[in-house]
Design goal:
- This protein is an alpha+beta fold and 140 residues long.
- The chain has one domain: 2,3-Dihydroxybiphenyl 1,2-Dioxygenase, domain 1.
- Helix content is 19%, strand content 41%.
- It contains three helices and eight strands; from the N terminus they run E-H-E-E-E-H-E-H-E-E-E.
- An eight-stranded mixed sheet has the order 2-3-4-1-5-8-7-6.
- It is globular, with a radius of gyration of 15 Å.
- 32% of the residues are buried.
- The structure holds cobalt (II) ion (CO).
- The site of cobalt (II) ion has 6 residues, from strand 1 and strand 5.
Length: 140
Amino acid sequence: MLKKVHHIGIAVPGLEEGAAIWGANGIGLVEEGREDVTSAQTRVAMFPVGESRIELLEAMSEDSPVGRFLNNRGPGIHHICFEVDDIESEIERLRGLGLRVLGNPPTPGAHGSLVAFLHPKDTGGVLIELNQFPEASGNP
Ligand code: CO
């Protein structure tokens, strides 16, 4: 089951440029913290807003998924992330609907989470992230 929209991922040329738009001196969100997700070669900054977050994504290399996205399409909305309780069963359910899952088994994401993506060609061009957070540490 999809619990809620956990965050919206936005590809930016750099976190400082992104923070200038989204942060306290821009639109007015307060940055929660930054983290390198080396498995995805991505540097992220989180900006909570209500129960959701804006996640800025900076490429750590040109050949990373975000680097390729920026080269092909430029900055902008990259993905929508749904929080799930049990990512394994959710992957099974969605694969049963014929959707291709990128990351099966799921891969480590920010804050000790487990992450998988649905192929955007199967979802009308929208990259969807599924994210299961560790119960012990709660929701980042
Ligand atoms: Co994300």
